């Protein structure tokens, strides 16, 4: 897949080193990551797993308390061990490694005669892929969508680099190769469940490659077994834990079907971004190009998926024209490997279709944004036009994708003077061993918990998961723990969030102690405070004195 010429090969290796370093530098330039999910659950979930707090606390990170924390742990440990700028640089560099894998996928897919073209065309396509508006918005940001993408792209490298072996080689080695690719994808799904959209594409895309159906079927089947194995390795243990604790391995999702008593009989899915009509769904790539907030919380602009969408839809028409006019001669082979090209287009289309029906949150298809330029180029290679026109179309399309890119911002802060990635100053707690902290409101606050004394339990009394009037096992246990507590009680909240506290605290027989609130300075959020609580029925005897 790399050029045979020594000088060109060295240039490619320089690119492999330079692009990740540039991404690392860009992450530092952007500043301290302070995105909502980091403050809400990524920081806390790793801490909770490492400290064994899964039973001590009650959903302080709201619904994401129940997300698989495996991927959070290495980042939590690294961010605590390294200066913030160093950690962000390394995170950005890791995200920049998508360029290397994209290059390898493109190099294995294209069939170019010129050694220079073999070296630089895959680089151009890969660079266009990683410079997408969605991906650039995530550089140095802890969401993991462009981290699990490494596993998806690695799976594609395994498949397309062995296209001839999968099509004509011994069946045993072919099955082993696709099972290995499936394992990579399964690991991604286990670490981050929305990656399942690519599990469908990578697995069933093998049904659309050239060759006898029975061979394609077994390739897809073996890939599926690999996906199951990878998912079991990284996600099975967590689903089993959720099943033991809550009777729902996806808790709280799909509880309208599974019916765990710990939550309401609701799906708990985020359906804000689903298209309302078939027309909206079909036109979504065009609509997203105009308004990125249709599939996410921030504005951005990117034409990669739109470009690939249009090219893929036009390609069948172009092939019909070619067949009608006999425009493609037998000795005029396309400049791509047919097996790899058909596979990539099928996998991309299937993944997009599953995403459209299940999520419609743009972050979840960042790998597809990266692959879109290559998918478009692979399709254009089959069009019944001269290679000069194909080249002009490719250059024009890639240029349009690049110049129209506009990244968004998930939230950044200035770097903390302390050099810490997360810097929290906790007010003095007089009796941590006998203290309990409640949390109310929808503000992301759990990132401050690791800075508190580890003995203190944190219970979220109101959130997206639980409300005061919910008839659930969760609410029952929550109220009983608060009622049985005999020590000091505090409320963790956003300074502006007076309404939810006023609505929630009376259901627990609690009230705020006058003048009992103290600020919690942090480098991620300057509007958090810790407030002393009293029992409403006997404030004189139950007052909490910090």
Number of strands: 7
Low-pLDDT stretches = 539-546
Q: Output the number of helix runs.
A: 22
Tell me roughly what share of residues is in helical segments.
40-55%
Based on helices, strands and strand pairing, what is the structural class? alpha/beta
Average pLDDT taken over every residue: 94
With strands numbered from the N-terminus, the spatial order across the biggest sheet is: 4-3-5-7-6
Order of helices and strands: HEHHHHHHHHHHHHHHHHHHEEEHEHEEH
Main β-sheet: number of strands, strand sense, barrel status? 5 strands, mixed
Report on this model:
The protein has a domain at 432-542. α10 packs antiparallel against α11 (196-204), α11 (196-204) runs antiparallel to α12 and α16 (304-325) packs parallel to α18 (366-380). With 546 residues, the protein is of the alpha/beta class. Residues 539-546 have low confidence and may be disordered. It has helices at residues 6-30, 36-51, 72-81, 84-96, 98-109, 115-130, 133-137, 145-160, 163-168, 171-191, 196-204, 213-246, 255-258, 278-282, 284-290, 304-325, 338-358, 366-380, 387-403, 473-484, 498-504, 539-542, and strands at residues 32-33, 412-413, 435-439, 458-460, 488-494, 510-519, 528-535. The chain is built from 22 helices and 7 strands.
List keywords for this structure.
elongated; 546 residues; 54% helix
Task: Spell out the blueprint of helices and strands.
Blueprint: H1 6-30, E1 32-33, H2 36-51, H3 72-81, H4 84-96, H5 98-109, H6 115-130, H7 133-137, H8 145-160, H9 163-168, H10 171-191, H11 196-204, H12 213-246, H13 255-258, H14 278-282, H15 284-290, H16 304-325, H17 338-358, H18 366-380, H19 387-403, E2 412-413, E3 435-439, E4 458-460, H20 473-484, E5 488-494, H21 498-504, E6 510-519, E7 528-535, H22 539-542
Parallel strand pairs: 3-4, 3-5
Antiparallel strand pairs: 1-2, 5-7, 6-7
Helix pairs in contact: 1-4, 1-6, 2-3, 5-6, 5-8, 5-18, 6-18, 8-10, 10-11, 10-12, 11-12, 11-17, 16-18, 17-18, 18-19
């Amino acid at each position: 897949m790399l050029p045979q010429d020594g000088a060109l090969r060295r240039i490619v290796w320089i690119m492999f080193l330079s692009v990740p370093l540039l991404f690392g530098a860009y992450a530092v330039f952007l500043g301290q990551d302070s995105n909502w999910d980091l403050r809400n659950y990524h920081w806390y979930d790793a801490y909770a797993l490492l400290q064994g707090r899964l039973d001590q606390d009650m959903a302080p990170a709201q619904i994401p308390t129940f997300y698989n924390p495996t991927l959070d742990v290495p980042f939590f440990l690294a961010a605590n061990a390294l200066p913030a700028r160093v950690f962000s640089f390394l995170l950005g560099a890791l995200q920049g490694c998508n360029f290397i894998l994209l290059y390898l996928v493109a190099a294995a897919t294209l069939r170019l005669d010129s050694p220079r073209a073999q070296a630089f065309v895959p680089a151009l396509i890969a660079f266009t892929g990683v410079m997408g508006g969605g991906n650039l918005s995530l550089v140095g940001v802890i969401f993991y969508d462009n981290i699990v993408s490494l596993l998806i792209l690695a799976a594609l490298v395994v498949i397309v680099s062995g296209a001839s072996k999968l099509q004509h080689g011994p069946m045993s080695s072919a099955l082993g190769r696709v099972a290995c690719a499936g394992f990579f994808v399964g690991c991604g799904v286990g670490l981050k469940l929305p990656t399942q959209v690519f599990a469908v594409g990578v697995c069933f895309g093998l049904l659309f490659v050239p060759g006898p159906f029975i061979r394609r079927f077994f390739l897809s089947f073996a890939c599926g077994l690999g996906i199951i194995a990878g998912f079991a390795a990284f996600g099975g243990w967590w689903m089993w834990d959720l099943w033991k604790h809550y009777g729902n391995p996806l808790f709280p999702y799909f509880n309208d079907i599974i019916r765990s008593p710990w939550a309401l009989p609701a799906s708990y899915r985020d359906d804000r971004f689903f298209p309302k009509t078939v027309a909206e769904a079909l036109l979504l790539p065009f609509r997203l190009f105009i308004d990125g907030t249709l599939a996410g919380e921030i504005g951005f602009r990117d034409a990669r998926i739109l470009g690939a969408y249009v090219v893929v839809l036009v390609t069948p028409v172009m092939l019909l024209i070619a067949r009608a006019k006999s425009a493609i001669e037998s000795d005029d082979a396309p400049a791509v490997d047919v097996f790899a090209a058909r596979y990539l287009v099928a996998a991309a289309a299937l993944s997009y279709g599953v995403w459209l029906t299940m999520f419609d949150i743009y972050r979840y298809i960042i790998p597809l944004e990266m692959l879109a330029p290559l998918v478009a180029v692979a399709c254009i290679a089959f069009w019944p036009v001269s290679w000069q026109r194909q080249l002009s179309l490719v250059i024009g399309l890639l240029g349009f994708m690049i110049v129209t890119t506009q990244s968004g911002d998930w939230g950044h802060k200035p770097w903390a003077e302390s050099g810490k990635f997360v810097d929290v100053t906790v007010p003095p707690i007089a009796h941590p061993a006998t203290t309990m902290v409640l949390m109310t409101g929808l503000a992301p606050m759990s990132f401050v918990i690791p800075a508190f004394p580890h003995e203190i339990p944190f219970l979220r009394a109101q959130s997206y998961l639980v409300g005061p009037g919910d008839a659930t096992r969760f609410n029952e246990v929550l109220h009983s723990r608060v009622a049985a507590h005999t020590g000091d009680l505090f409320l963790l909240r956003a300074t502006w969030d007076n309404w939810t506290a006023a609505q929630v605290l009376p259901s627990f027989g609690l009230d705020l102690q006058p003048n009992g609130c103290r600020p919690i300075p942090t480098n991620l959020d300057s509007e958090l405070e810790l407030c002393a609580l009293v029992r409403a029925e006997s404030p004189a005897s139950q007052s909490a004195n910090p």
